[in-house]
Amino acid sequence: xxxxxxxxxxxxxxxxxxxxxxxxxxxxxxxxxxxxxxxxxxxxxxxxxxxxxxxxxxxxxxxxxxxxxxxxxxxxxxxxxxxxxxxxxxxxxxxxxxxxxxxxxxxxxxxxxxxxxxxxxxxxxxxxxxxxxxxxxxxxxxxxxxxxxxxxxxxxxxxxxxxxxxxxxxxxxxxxxxxxxxxxxxxxxxxxxxxxxxxxxxxxxxxxxxxxxxxxxxxxxxxxxxxxxxxxxxxxxxxxxxxxxxxxxxxxxxxxxxxxxxxxxxxxxxxxxxxxxxxxxxxxxxxxxxxxxxxxxxxxxxxxxxxxxxxxxxxxxxxxxxxxxxxxxxxxxxxxxxxxxxxxxxxxxxxxxxxxxxxxxxxxxxxxxxxxxxxxxxxxxxxxxxxxxxxxxxxxxxxxxxxxxxxxxxxxxxxxxxxxxxxxxxxxxxxxxxxxxxxxxxxxxxxxxxxxxxxxxxxxxxxxxxxxxxxxxxxxxxxxxxxxxxxxxxxxxxxxxxxxxxxxxxxxxxxxxxxxxxxxxxxxxxxxxxxxxxxxxxxxxxxxxxxxx
Length: 549
Description:
The chain is of the alpha/beta class.
């Protein structure tokens, strides 16, 4: 670690300038020799010898040109990559200093101890939090050293090839100095450190890898491998969104091709015997049409706001998109890397890619209410990042929420890891509706998330009897249920979160949807009315998001 701390890419960057001059001089010399060749009117053995000698010189110049091009490219790439490594060192040291840790010259993490005034009742929680920070620091230092070794190895490999005069293959098709230069430049390109496995890595591991890349490396990697960047939690929002737009368009083309194939197949099913098959194909096409609509809705939101500043609370970003199954996506209105007030909204039963427009509309309404409550800088995320139950009959199973837990927890960790170092301290709220409330509640039980407030809306329960079972700051779990909402009034997963015994802060809801007397006043429409502008529940959600509860 001590050596890496002292690294500087400046000497390599300065060498690029000198190599540029040498390269240009060689190209010019080669052009001059090519023009000389065999002067017009000169023939005989002497003329042939002169022409042969010129050819030999040009060939030698080709080798030198390729060598200089390779070293120039490698030096420039290494200088740029060292900047990324130095950034990784800086981020690790700042994280250590902010939490009273230190990083030794051998890379070991030293815990200087928690604050002296830590209350006895908080000792265990503080110790657990410090263990997590130490683990992240270990990962960041390891990634810095891995990246440094990669740079050193790649640069040495290029220099070894140059020293062994192995910059141009014997079978190379390079027939000019420019072509030789291109061959050398290709050889001099350095590799980008391999990212951690996308499905296995934590958000902290992803952020540690990303921190060691230079801006140029990040841009190149995102362009070449969008599917390894777009869904990766812990990376900056703007880069992810750009990569996800590429993925979105690829997914849409794939769906269109699949739709075309199904239409062609449907045209071959004739007669009464083919009716069942045609009906099945029609349902598949309808499902595809829904997913295409969802992709179009997301793209339209991004395109409509693309000219806004990246820090605008009205600009849309794509944090995740996939068209498999019912489709998944995560779309943010506002940049969560810089916004002061961040919220994630998790919808419930029936939510899928095809109806994400409804979720985005509700997120937008909550953002409006938060701004009216004083939150000027907001990012509201519509999280369709899990396979929600398709129907209420399926919503009695906890399996969907259990499968969503690690995804949602990792997503929340990623929002913290990708925070801009210059951004103000944020307030992060997690809102869940219906089965989405069950999902965020179960996740909060089993995962410690960087969440300040948790809001349960129309919840059928969270599989816990009391708020103390949720790893959320005391006094910061909220719940609301309309008196006409049949879903909230029939808890499936333990106690109704609005019951006093549960211990949440309960706020009111007033829906205009009231059922008939023989329905007990219940009306399923009221289950969706929490976001009506005349419902006080919406205003309260805005205040909670704004930290003004």
